[in-house]
Design the sequence.
C-alpha cells in the first residue's frame, strides 16, 4: 500500500462471505442492486440481510436523492473527507473518484488525499471538509460555528443537512470497510 | 411509544423546519429508523442476544459522550438487564477518550500515526467472555478503526462469536456511530439561527 489514492483498488474480506449459490430472495432484496452479488463486501454483509437492506436504502437516499440540497460532488466530498480523517483508504479511493468526477476538480480532491483534511481548499470546500471532520471526531465537535460557515459558503439548510448526513453515514461505512477486510492492490474492485 | 428515535434524540418536533428537512430524504429517514428496529428487535437471538445488543449499544453511546443518546441506551439496558447497568458505566468511564486515532500499517502513512488508549475490559468477570470481547472490539471500531486487523476478528471468534454474529456486531457499532452523529448534527442545525430556506 502507498497511502491514499484515487486509483481503483480492491477489497478482500477477512471473514467468509456468503456464496452466490446460497443467496435467497431475501438476500437479493437486501443487496438492492443485483450486481452487488459479485462483491465480496456485500456478500459478507448479506449474512445479516435485514440490516444490510436498511443500510443500503439509507446510503442511497443520502447520496443519490436529487431533490435539491447539496450537489452530488459535495456529498462525495464529505464522504471523502470523513474517510480521510477516519483512515479508510479503500472508502476514500472510491469516493474521491466520485468527488473528482462530479466536481471536475481532481487536483483539489488529490490534495485532500495527499495532505489531509487541513490541506488548503476554497472557502466552500473548506466549510464542508471542516464540518465533516468535526462530525467525525469522537465526541463530535460539530457546532453552531460550522453551520454558520456552511451558510456563509452558500449552503441552504437542506444542503447543510445533506452534508451532515453524508459525513455521519461515512462514519458507518468506514467502520465496516476497515474492520471486516482490507484493501487489495492486486485486484480491481 | 417512540416512533422515530433520531427525531426523539435530536428534538425534531412535528412540522418544525428540521421535520420538513428530514421529509426531503424520506428513504434515509425511514431506513435509519428501520436500521434501529432490525438491530434492536431482531428476528432471532441466535447470533447476538438482545442483552448483548443493548449492552454494546449502551457502551458505544456512552463512549460518544452525547448525553441524550447515552441516557437513551443506558435506560434500555437498565430495563432489559439491570445487573449490567453499573458494570457498563464503569467500562464507559474506563474507555472514554477522544478520537479517531491509531497507527497505520501502511508505511506511507506512518507520519500520521497517532497513538492512543487501547482499551481492555476492566470487569470481564461481570460482563462474561463474549461481551468483554465485544466491548474491546467496539472500542477499537469507535476510536481507532484504522487499526482494525484480522486478529481482532479472531479474538471475537475465540470468545464464541460466529461469523454472522461478528457481521451483526460490526453493523451495530457502525450504525450507532452514524446515528449519534446525525442526531448531534441535526440538533445543532435546528438550534442555529435560520439562514436561507431549504
Sequence:
Amino acid at each position: 500500500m502507498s497511502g491514499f489514492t484515487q486509483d481503483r483498488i480492491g477489497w478482500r474480506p477477512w471473514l467468509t462471505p456468503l456464496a452466490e449459490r446460497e443467496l435467497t430472495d431475501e438476500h437479493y432484496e437486501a443487496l438492492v442492486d443485483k450486481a452487488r452479488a459479485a462483491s465480496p463486501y456485500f456478500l459478507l454483509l448479506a449474512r445479516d440481510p435485514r440490516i444490510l437492506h436498511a443500510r443500503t436504502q439509507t446510503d442511497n437516499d443520502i447520496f443519490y436523492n436529487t431533490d435539491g440540497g447539496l450537489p452530488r460532488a459535495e456529498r462525495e466530498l464529505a464522504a471523502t473527507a470523513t474517510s480521510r480523517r477516519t483512515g479508510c483508504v479503500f472508502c476514500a479511493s472510491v469516493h474521491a473518484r466520485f468527488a473528482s468526477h462530479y466536481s471536475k476538480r481532481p487536483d483539489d480532491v488529490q490534495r485532500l488525499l495527499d495532505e489531509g483534511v487541513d490541506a488548503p481548499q476554497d472557502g466552500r470546500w473548506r466549510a464542508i471538509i471542516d464540518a465533516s471532520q468535526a462530525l467525525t471526531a469522537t465526541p463530535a465537535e460539530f457546532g453552531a460555528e460550522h453551520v454558520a460557515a456552511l451558510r456563509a459558503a452558500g449552503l441552504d439548510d437542506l444542503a447543510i443537512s445533506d452534508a451532515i448526513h453524508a459525513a455521519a453515514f461515512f462514519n458507518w461505512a468506514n467502520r465496516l470497510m476497515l474492520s471486516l477486510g482490507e484493501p487489495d492492490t492486486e485486484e480491481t474492485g | 411509544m417512540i416512533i422515530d428515535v433520531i427525531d426523539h434524540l435530536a428534538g425534531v418536533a412535528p412540522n418544525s423546519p428540521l421535520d420538513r428537512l428530514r421529509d426531503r430524504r424520506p428513504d434515509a429517514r425511514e431506513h435509519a429508523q428501520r436500521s434501529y428496529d432490525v438491530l434492536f428487535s431482531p428476528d432471532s437471538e441466535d447470533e447476538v442476544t438482545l442483552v448483548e445488543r443493548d449492552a454494546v449499544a449502551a457502551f458505544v453511546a456512552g463512549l460518544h459522550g452525547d448525553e441524550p443518546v447515552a441516557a437513551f441506551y443506558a435506560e434500555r439496558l437498565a430495563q432489559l438487564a439491570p445487573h449490567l447497568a453499573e458494570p457498563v458505566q464503569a467500562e464507559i468511564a474506563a474507555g472514554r477518550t477522544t478520537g479517531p486515532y491509531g497507527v497505520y500499517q501502511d508505511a506511507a502513512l506512518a507520519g500520521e500515526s497517532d497513538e492512543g488508549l487501547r482499551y481492555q475490559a476492566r470487569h470481564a468477570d461481570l460482563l462474561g467472555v463474549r461481551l468483554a470481547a465485544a466491548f474491546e472490539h467496539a472500542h477499537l471500531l469507535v476510536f481507532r478503526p484504522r487499526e482494525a486487523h484480522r486478529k481482532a476478528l479472531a479474538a471475537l471468534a475465540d470468545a464464541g462469536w460466529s461469523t454472522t454474529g461478528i457481521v451483526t456486531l460490526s453493523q451495530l457499532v457502525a450504525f450507532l456511530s452514524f446515528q449519534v452523529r446525525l442526531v448531534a448534527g441535526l440538533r445543532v442545525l435546528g438550534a442555529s439561527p435560520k439562514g436561507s430556506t431549504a
Q: What stands out?
A: The CA atoms of residues 9 and 188 of chain A lie 5 Å apart. Residues 10-64 of chain A form one domain.
